[in-house]
Specification:
heterodimer, A: 596 residues, alpha/beta, six-stranded mixed beta sheet, four-stranded antiparallel beta sheet, 22 helices, 10 strands, 54% helix, elongated, B: 312 residues, mainly alpha, 12 helices
Chain lengths: 596, 312
C-alpha cells in the first residue's frame, strides 16, 4: 500500500451567520421587527401620543368624523378613537404577555423534565397536556368565568395554562431529542449534574424554537383577549381593542367604520408576529440544517480543464457501438441552477445482456448517472449537457408521457434501501400489480397472477402471504426481493440497480446477487450496476467503470481491472477491500505494482 | 386495528370522564358565588343562603356530584337556574345549530385546504407563494373581526345575506343555506389557511420519500403517484383537521354571537354572563362528547389510511 492518493478537500462551507444576523438580513424579518418595535413604542408612549384621555367623552364628538382633533374620529360616547386605540394597545399587550408568561412558566420546566427524565412524569404530564387541549378554550374560559368572575386578567392566566401544552410539547420534543445525543452522554460521564446539563445544553437548544413558538402564541393571545373583551369579559369602560370592537358591533348600523381601526391593529400586530416567527424559523433551520441527503461532489481540482480526458483509458468516449442498449455520452449533471456540477462529462455503454458495474466511493456521482437515465434526479438537479439513448432512442428532453412508457416498461429500477422504497400504506402486492396493469394492460386478476408468479420467481417462500402483507410486515431481504420483482415485472430490457445489496445483511447479500445473476441470464438483461463494493463487482459484472469525483477514471473488463488496475484510485478502492478472494488478488496486485 | 381502536377509545373515555368532572367540581365548588351573582350585590346573607338551598348548592360537593351523575345516567342534565327549562332539551336544538355551521365549515375548509395544499406542494411557484400569504393572513386576521366585516359589508350594506338568525333546513333549504353561509365563511378562512399549510408540508415530506421516486421509476402516471402521496400525507393532515375542529368550536362562540345564531356557543356566553351553572355544565359535557367523538372518527380514518399507525 505505497500509493497514497490525495483527495482534494471539500470547499469550505460559507461562514455561518448567527440566527439574529440571519433574521436581520431577511427583508421580512426586518420589516416585522420594525413594525413590532413601532407598535411597542406607540404603546409605551401612549400618554404622550394620545390627543386626549381615552376616557374623556364629549357630547359634541359622538361619532365624530375624522378631523385634526380626532384623527380616527369619535365613538358612541364621544371619546377619541385614536387615544383609545393607543391606550388599548397597553391592555392588549399586557394581557397577551400574562398568558404567554403563564404558559412558559408551566410548559418550559415541565417539558424539560419530561424530555430529560422521561418515565412517569412524562406520561402523566403528556396525559394532562392532552386533557388541557381537549376542550375549546373559549368554552373553558366561559365556564370558569362563573367561578373566578369576569376579570380579563384572570382569564388570561387561565388561557395561559391552557396554552402550556403547546410550549410543553415543543420543549419536551426538543429536549428528548437532545437527550439522546452523544454529547449529553459525554457530559454525564464527565460528571456534570443534571441541572447543569439542562441549563447548559438543553436550554440552549430549546431557546430558538421557543422564541418562535412564543411569537405565534403572543399573536394568538392578543386575538383571544380581544375576543374575550368582545364577549363582555373585563371592564367595558377600559379602552382596549376588544372593547372597541364590541362598541363597534353595538353601533354597527350607525358607525361600521369603528370596526376597522382596532381590527387593523390586531391584524397588523399578529401578522408582524407571525412573519417574525417565520423569519426566525427559516434562520433556525438554516443554522441547524442537516447535511443534504443528496451527496454533492467537489468541483474538479483547479487546473483540470473539465473536458480533459480522464487519466485512465476510458473506452467508448467516441461513437457508441451500434448494438449498445444504453448509451450515455458526455453526461453533465449539476445542482443549484447549474452552479454545482457533480457529474463532469460521463460516457458509458451497456450492451444487451451485459452487466456493467459503476463503481466509486460515496459522492462520486454514480447514483446521479443512474438517476439521470431514469430522468429522476432529485429536486434542483438537472442534466446540463450530454446525451442518453436507450436502444438508439434518445431519452433526454422527451415529454413525461414518453418517459412513462420507458420507465418500468423498458428500464427496471432497483433502489438501495429496501424498506424506504416500498409505500408503507399499500399492500405489497397492490404496489406491484398496479404497475403491471398500467404497462401491460392486464386485468386485476391477471395482474395478480403475474405478480404472484414474480414473487415466487424472486424466491419469496409464501407469495400469497407476502402479496397481502404491508411493507412493515416483511423483512429487509424480502423487501429487496419484492423490489427486484417490481423492477423486472414488465420484462424490461435494461435494469438499473443502485447499490441493491448495500443495506442488507452479508448472508442475504449473496442470495440477492445470485438472484440478480440468474434473472439477468434468464432474461438476457443489460444491467447498469451501481455499487461501491468491488466484491459485488467481481461476483456479477462483465465490465467495470470506476468513477471518481464525477468522472470515469477507468473502464475495462472486470477481470483485467482486478488483475492490473491502472488508475491510482482504482488501486486505492481495491486495496480498501478487506475480505473476499478478489480483494486478496487485488492487494497482491497493488503491492506487486508498488514494488516494481 | 382493534387494539389501536380500543386504545384510542379508552383515551377518549378518560377525557370524557375527567374534563366534565373537573369542570363540575370547580363550578359547583364555588356555587355560593353563583347565588350572589344571581341575586345581585345587595342581597342579604339570608337571601343568599335561601337561594343556595333552593338551588341545592348548599349540600356537600360530593353529594351534589353523585346526584348529578345519577341524573346524568338517566339522561337528565338538570334545569336552568333562570328559566327552569330542562338543560337537555335546551341544548339539543342548540347543538344542531352549532354542528351545522362547524361541520359545514370543516368540510368546506378541509376540501379547499387539501386542494390548495396539494397544488402548492406539487406545483410550487405562484400557488405556493399565494398559500404562504394566505397562511399569514388567515392566522393573523381575528376570526370574529372577519365575521364583523362580513356582517357589516355583505349583510348590512350589500344586503346579500341575512345578518342574523338561523332558519332550519326543514323550514326552507334556501334560507337555511343563506343563513349559514356567512358564519361558515367566517369560520373557514383561518381553518383553510392553517390546514392547507399542514397539507402542503405533509405532501412535500412524502414527495421526498424514496418510495415516491421508485413509484415514478416504475412509470406510473402522475395521478397514480399523487394518489400514493395523498394517502401517505393524509394522516398528519387529518390530525391537524381534528385540532382545527376544536378551534372551530371556539370560533363558533363568536360567530353565533355576531350572527345571533341560537347555538351552544351563544348559550354558553349568555349562561356565563348570568352565572347559569347547569347550562354551562351541560355545554361543557356536550362539547367534550363532540370533541371526543370527532377525535375517534379521525383516529379511525387515520388507522384505515395508514396501516403503520395501527401498530403504535
Amino acid at each position: 500500500m505505497s500509493q497514497i492518493v490525495s483527495i482534494p478537500a471539500l470547499p469550505a462551507a460559507p461562514a455561518r451567520r448567527g440566527v439574529i444576523g440571519k433574521v436581520l438580513h431577511d427583508p421580512l424579518g426586518i420589516i416585522s421587527l420594525v413594525v413590532l418595535l413601532l407598535i411597542l413604542l406607540a404603546t409605551v408612549l401612549a400618554p404622550v401620543l394620545a390627543p386626549q384621555d381615552p376616557g374623556r367623552s364629549s357630547l359634541d364628538d359622538i361619532f365624530a368624523p375624522i378631523s385634526a382633533a380626532h384623527p380616527l374620529g369619535g365613538d358612541s360616547a364621544g371619546r377619541d378613537l385614536l387615544s383609545r386605540l393607543l391606550y388599548g394597545a397597553q391592555v392588549s399587550l399586557l394581557g397577551a404577555s400574562i398568558a404567554l408568561l403563564t404558559s412558559l412558566v408551566i410548559g418550559l420546566p415541565a417539558g424539560l423534565i419530561a424530555g430529560y427524565y422521561g418515565r412517569t412524569f412524562d406520561s402523566v404530564s403528556s396525559w394532562a397536556a392532552n386533557l388541557l387541549q381537549a376542550l375549546p378554550a373559549i368554552i373553558v374560559l366561559l365556564a370558569l368565568r362563573t367561578v373566578f368572575g369576569p376579570s380579563i386578567w384572570t382569564s388570561m392566566v387561565i388561557f395561559g395554562v391552557m396554552l402550556a401544552p403547546g410550549a410543553y410539547r415543543l420543549v419536551r420534543a426538543t429536549a428528548s431529542g437532545v437527550r439522546n445525543e452523544l454529547y449529553i452522554d459525554a457530559a454525564l460521564v464527565s460528571g456534570l449534574s443534571d441541572t447543569r446539563i439542562i441549563a447548559r445544553h438543553m436550554l440552549r437548544v430549546v431557546r430558538g424554537p421557543l422564541i418562535m413558538h412564543s411569537a405565534m402564541v403572543l399573536a394568538i393571545c392578543i386575538n383571544i383577549q380581544a375576543g374575550l373583551e368582545f364577549l363582555g369579559f373585563g371592564d367595558p369602560q377600559t379602552a382596549s381593542w376588544g372593547s372597541m370592537l364590541n362598541e363597534g358591533f353595538l353601533n354597527i348600523f350607525q358607525a361600521p367604520q369603528m370596526l376597522s381601526w382596532p381590527g387593523l391593529a390586531l391584524f397588523l400586530t399578529s401578522a408582524a408576529l407571525a412573519l417574525f416567527a417565520g423569519s426566525l424559523r427559516d434562520a433556525l433551520q438554516a443554522g441547524t440544517a442537516k447535511p443534504a441527503r443528496r451527496r454533492r461532489v467537489a468541483a474538479p481540482p483547479a487546473g483540470t480543464a473539465p473536458d480533459a480526458p480522464p487519466s485512465g483509458p476510458p473506452a467508448g468516449n467516441g461513437e457508441s457501438p451500434p448494438d449498445a442498449l444504453l448509451s450515455i455520452r458526455g453526461l453533465r449533471v449539476a445542482y443549484g441552477g447549474g452552479s454545482v456540477e457533480v457529474v463532469h462529462g460521463v460516457s458509458l455503454d451497456v450492451a444487451r445482456g451485459e452487466v456493467v458495474g459503476l463503481v466509486g466511493e460515496s459522492g462520486s456521482g454514480k447514483t446521479q448517472v443512474a438517476l439521470s437515465v431514469l430522468g429522476l434526479l432529485p429536486t434542483g438537479g438537472e442534466v446540463t449537457s450530454g446525451a442518453i439513448a436507450l436502444a438508439g432512442e434518445p431519452l433526454l428532453g422527451r415529454p413525461a408521457s414518453f418517459l412513462r412508457t420507458v420507465r418500468g416498461r423498458r428500464i427496471g429500477y432497483i433502489p438501495q434501501e429496501p424498506m424506504s422504497n416500498l409505500d408503507p400504506s399499500f399492500r405489497v402486492g397492490n404496489q406491484l400489480s398496479e404497475v403491471v396493469r398500467v404497462h401491460l394492460g392486464l386485468s386485476r386478476a391477471a395482474a395478480r397472477d403475474r405478480v404472484l408468479d414474480l414473487l415466487a420467481r424472486v424466491g419469496i417462500p409464501d407469495p400469497a402471504r407476502t402479496y397481502r402483507a404491508f411493507p412493515h410486515e416483511i423483512s429487509g431481504g424480502m423487501a429487496q426481493r419484492v423490489l427486484i420483482a417490481g423492477a423486472v415485472s414488465c420484462d424490461p430490457e435494461l435494469l438499473i440497480a443502485d447499490e441493491p445489496t448495500t443495506a442488507l445483511d452479508v448472508t442475504v447479500q449473496a442470495d440477492i446477487l445470485d438472484l440478480l445473476r440468474d434473472l439477468q441470464q434468464e432474461k438476457g438483461l443489460g444491467v447498469l450496476f451501481v455499487t461501491h463494493n468491488f466484491g459485488v463487482v467481481a461476483d456479477v459484472c462483465d465490465r467495470v467503470l470506476v468513477m471518481r469525483q464525477g468522472e470515469i477514471v477507468e473502464d475495462r473488463p472486470a477481470q483485467e481491472i482486478f488483475d492490473t488496475p491502472r488508475h491510482d484510485y482504482t488501486r486505492l478502492l481495491l486495496g480498501s477491500m478487506l475480505d473476499g478472494r478478489p480483494a486478496r488478488l487485488a492487494r497482491a496486485a497493488a503491492t506487486g505494482d508498488g514494488r516494481a | 386495528m382493534l387494539a389501536f381502536l380500543a386504545k384510542r377509545t379508552g383515551a377518549g373515555l378518560s377525557v370524557l370522564l375527567v374534563v366534565p368532572s373537573l369542570t363540575f367540581l370547580l363550578m359547583y365548588g364555588n356555587a355560593a358565588n353563583a347565588a350572589r351573582q344571581i341575586l345581585g350585590e345587595n342581597a342579604t346573607p339570608e337571601q343568599i343562603a335561601a337561594k343556595s338551598a333552593a338551588l341545592g348548592v348548599d349540600r356537600p360537593l360530593f353529594v351534589q356530584f353523585i346526584d348529578y351523575v345519577g341524573q346524568l345516567s338517566v339522561g337528565d342534565l338538570g334545569r336552568s337556574w333562570f328559566t327552569a327549562e330542562p338543560v337537555g332539551s335546551l341544548l339539543t336544538s342548540r347543538a344542531t345549530v352549532t354542528l351545522t355551521v362547524v361541520i359545514g365549515s370543516i368540510l368546506v375548509s378541509t376540501l379547499l385546504a387539501f386542494a390548495l395544499g396539494v397544488t402548492a406542494a406539487l406545483r410550487r411557484g405562484a400557488v405556493d407563494i399565494a398559500l404562504q400569504v394566505l397562511a399569514i393572513v388567515g392566522f393573523a386576521v381575528p376570526g370574529f373581526w372577519l365575521a364583523l366585516l362580513l356582517v357589516s359589508g355583505l349583510a348590512l350594506q350589500l344586503r346579500l345575506f341575512p345578518a342574523t338568525g338561523f332558519v332550519p333546513f326543514t323550514a326552507s333549504p334556501g334560507q337555511w343555506l343563506a343563513s349559514i353561509t356567512l358564519p361558515v365563511v367566517a369560520l373557514m378562512v383561518g381553518a383553510v389557511a392553517g390546514v392547507a399549510q399542514q397539507v402542503r408540508g405533509a405532501v412535500i415530506d412524502v414527495l421526498e420519500q424514496d418510495y415516491v421516486r421508485t413509484l415514478r421509476a416504475r412509470g406510473l402516471p402522475s395521478w397514480r403517484v399523487v394518489a400514493h402521496v395523498l394517502r401517505n400525507a393524509s394522516a398528519p393532515a387529518l390530525t391537524v383537521v381534528a385540532l382545527t375542529f376544536i378551534g372551530t368550536l371556539s370560533g363558533a362562540v363568536f360567530v353565533e354571537r355576531i350572527f345571533a345564531l341560537p347555538g351552544l356557543g351563544l348559550a354558553a356566553t349568555n349562561a356565563a354572563v348570568n352565572g347559569d351553572v347547569p347550562v354551562i355544565m351541560g355545554v361543557v359535557l356536550v362539547m367534550t362528547a363532540i370533541v371526543v367523538l370527532v377525535n375517534l372518527v379521525v383516529d379511525l380514518a387515520i388507522g384505515l389510511l395508514n396501516p403503520k399507525v395501527r401498530l403504535s
